[in-house]
Structures are given as structure tokens and as C-alpha cells.
Amino acid sequence: MKQSVRGLPQRILDALFFPIRALFVPEERSFGLTSLRDERFEIVAMHAKGKVLDIGCGKDNLFIKNWCDHPESVGIDVYAYGGVERVHQDMTHLPYADNTFDTVTLIAVGGHIPENVRVKEFVEIARVLKPGGNLLMTEGEPVTQTVGHLWRHFSYAVIGKKDMDSERGMEEDEQYCMPFNEIMGYLNAPPLKFTKQVKFMWGLNNLYVAQKSN
């Protein structure tokens, strides 16, 4: 893990001012507060190991560049955001061999997987994971996640900026958040087995961990 984990004083400050962070500090650190994006990255990095594939890596491939130590870790996205090195439009056929990665991450992108391909995509994720490897997935709670996305669309538009969803566009069968029961179905589909849930951001965001059986 490249970036250091926040110290206790910073974690307390971030927790106390979470509503301010949710409204005004989504992506870049501001007002001495950790961005929501960086907190998600930190939580995921604490559970990641070895060679990492970050699916839906987004602009500048930041999780891989800033948080992953393994030199062969890679970020991949369906859209050519600036700084994305690997663009691949069909995530149901990943361009990697079986059992390639120790960790696969889906950071705040689960709902953006089109509903009609979700089963195939999770099968493909399991294929490229090594036995004993982990799938790490973050998803917020449905109501707050939807409100947060809508607020971001509005607030970014006010300052003449596009958020990533607006830049890429949303397909009809995408959602702002994948429902919990659906997540559990994918993470408990052999060879994957759900092992852990970690709540953060006042319990409004979640890290889900599933392991591929040996």
C-alpha cells in the first residue's frame, strides 16, 4: 500500500465533518478533510493483496497508481477517461488469463454494471481471480447513494464541470447503487463465497469481501 492510512486525529475530524465531506469533498481533499473517494480507496487498500485488477478504474487510474504496490497491478475501464491506460468495453470477456489476479476491485461501480450482463461479469471476475484471491466491492446505501449522485450532477453543473457519470453517460439498465440482496447473490455464487462486510462513512457505505475457493 503506497499511501499511508489516516491517523486517529484525521479519522475523528473526517467523521465529525462527514456531512460537509459528502456535500463538498467528493473527489479532492479540501478544508483539511479527506475526500470520499480517498476514504473508499483507503478502506479497499487495507484489504487488497498482491496483483490487483481495478475494474471501472475511472479518471487517472488513481487507485492503482496511488495505493497499490504490486508493479503488475492494472486498472481497466469501459470509457476512455483521461489517464486510463487500458480501455476495454466488454467486461464479460476480460483480456486476462485464468487465475491471474490476487485481488479484483469494484470501487463504487457495481450499479454501473448493466443489469443484463451482471451475472456474466461476476463469472468473469471469478475466472481471472486466483484461488484464494479476493473480490473487494464498495457500494453505498440505495437512498443516500442516489441522492449523492443527483447532488453531484447538480453541484458540478453549477460550476461548469461534469462528473464522471455525466461525462460518460448512463445506460438505461444502469443504477446508482446495486441492491444488497443482488450483491450477496453474486458474491455467494461458486467459486466465490462472501466472507466480510465493513461499514464506513457513518455506516452509509460498505466494503464487501468475497473469496474464490481453492
Structural features:
alpha/beta; Rossmann fold; 214 residues; globular; single chain; 8 helices
User: What is the number of domains?
Assistant: 1
What is the averaged pLDDT score?
95
The fold-level CATH name is: Rossmann fold
| Number of helical elements | 8
Spans where pLDDT lies below 50 across 5 or more residues: none
Could you say which structural class the secondary elements and strand pairing correspond to? alpha/beta
**What is the H/E string?**
HHHEHEEHEHHHEE
Strand order of the largest sheet: 2-1-3-4-6-5
Going by CATH, what is the homologous superfamily? Vaccinia Virus protein VP39
Query: What share of residues are in beta strands?
Result: 15-25%
CATH class wording: Alpha Beta
How does the overall form come out from the CA principal axes?
Answer: globular
As a whole number of angstroms, the C-alpha radius of gyration is: 16 Å
Q: What is the first-to-last residue Cα distance?
A: 25 Å
Organism: Candidatus Methylomirabilis limnetica
Protein name: Methyltransferase type 11 domain-containing protein
InterPro entries: Methyltransf_11, SAM-dependent_MTases_sf
Pfam families: Methyltransf_11
